[in-house]
Amino acid sequence: MIKQIRLDQFRNIHTATLTPAAQVNLFVGDNGAGKTSLLEAVYLLGMGRSFRTANLKQLIETDQDYCRVIAKLNDDIPAGLQLDSRHGLQIRLNNAPLKKLSELASHLPLQFIPANCHAFFEQGPKFRRKQVDWGLFHVEPSFLFHWQSYKKALQHRNAAIRQNKTDSEISLWHVALVNHGMKIHDLRLRYLEQLLVIFEQVFKTISDGFDDAVVSLRYQPGWPKEKEFAQVLNETIERDRILNYTRAGVHAADWSFKINQSEPSEQLSRGQQKLYFLAISLAQIHWLISKGNHQSVLLIDDLCSELDHWHQEKVLNYLSSLSVQSYISSTNLALPEYLPKEGQHQVFHVKHGQFV
């Protein structure tokens, strides 16, 4: 959670200091006013990258040399970053230079719902794996070790394939791939089975027409389920030589929560898909809270896109009942009217990079 945040020369925001509420924070205004830039600054603070561009220099205000974001996190831990053309991105946490981005992520668990959240359905398994691995990173202490070890072994096996090494030299990496890969597989499967129960409750609460729907888990580990992972690695060496990379493994896993035995992309409307994706993020936040982590931040860019007024109100009511700090942008100036009377809320009217 963020207690206070200051932006200097960040895109079209010359300078701004905000004290956000502990729960729902609404940012309303016209397009280009600076709403999404504020969400981007929070995202950068939690992830070390932008969700809008890979060229971070674009974050610096026109005709300025640098931009800066400084925040006070929960427990009064200071966090800040500065970006300039000479030194690049520099991040400090608790008054010390940041060594690993994972340290930043652990202090500010952050979920982001983009205006076009349909990438979850359209961009393939990689996006969905990232979603579930985010949760595992925060709730399973061993996950990061196994994932980093698996990636290292995978890189070595792929290098051996590209260098046309012998089968035995390629197979040297199979033990590490299987040991760490199966740990990741077990962690993912157990996490998704637990998440399914929470997701079903959240989805049926914030949507409508699905009270009697049957929600089930589809999980593909990254190799044929009827075979052992080690067996598949040995059997596919020649195929992988042709492909020039290792195809089978947890790096190729996929999953979804099916609705009445159908994939959500096949059955749900665009608005329902947005609620589906939001329900997954909220279910993960619920799981973090159940584990004693109350630091989560939820960013929703353009909540009103593809949602009618009734569903906008349902989402705001649900967020107001959670121990999560949310930052929500919208061009709908009437959105604050849908906030419930109870809860800790803040409404910011944004115009030309200024927050009132």
Quick rundown:
The chain is 41% helix and 22% strand.
CATH superfamily of the largest domain: P-loop containing nucleotide triphosphate hydrolases
Q: Helical content, roughly?
A: 40-55%
User: What structural category arises from helix and sheet content?
Assistant: alpha/beta
CATH architecture call of the largest domain: 3-Layer(aba) Sandwich
Principal-axes shape call: globular
CATH level-3 fold name of the largest domain: Rossmann fold
The radius of gyration is 22 Å
Mean pLDDT: 94
Strand order of the largest sheet: 2-1-4-5-6-7
Largest sheet, if any? 6 strands, antiparallel
Number of domains: 2
What structural keywords apply?
356 residues, alpha/beta, Rossmann fold, Glutathione S-transferase Yfyf (Class Pi), Chain A, domain 2, 2 domains, six-stranded antiparallel beta sheet, six-stranded mixed beta sheet, 22% strand
Report on this model:
One of its GO terms (cellular component) is cytoplasm. ATP binds at residues 29-36. Pfam families: SMC_N (PF02463). It is found in: Cytoplasm. Keywords: ATP-binding, Cytoplasm, DNA damage, DNA repair, DNA replication, DNA-binding, Nucleotide-binding, SOS response. This protein has 356 residues and is α/β, with parallel strands linked by helices. The protein folds into two domains: 2-108 and 295-355, Rossmann fold; 119-259, RecF/RecN/SMC, N-terminal domain (Glutathione S-transferase Yfyf (Class Pi), Chain A, domain 2), CATH 1.20.1050. Helix content is 41%, strand content 22%. The chain contains twelve helices and 14 strands. It has helices at residues 35-47, 101-107, 119-122, 125-139, 143-162, 167-171, 174-206, 229-235, 237-243, 264-267, 270-290, 309-319; strands at residues 2-10, 13-18, 24-28, 66-73, 78-84, 88-93, 96-97, 110-113, 215-220, 254-259, 297-300, 325-330, 345-351, 354-355. It has a six-stranded antiparallel sheet, covered by helices on one side. Strands 8-11-12-3-13-14 form a six-stranded mixed sheet, sandwiched between helices. A hairpin with a 3-residue loop joins strand 5 (78-84) and strand 6 (88-93). Helix 5 crosses helix 7 (174-206), helix 7 crosses helix 8 and helix 7 (174-206) packs across helix 11 (270-290). The longest helix is centred in the middle third of the chain and has 33 residues, at 174-206. The radius of gyration is 22 Å and the shape is globular. The model has no long low-confidence stretch (mean pLDDT 94).
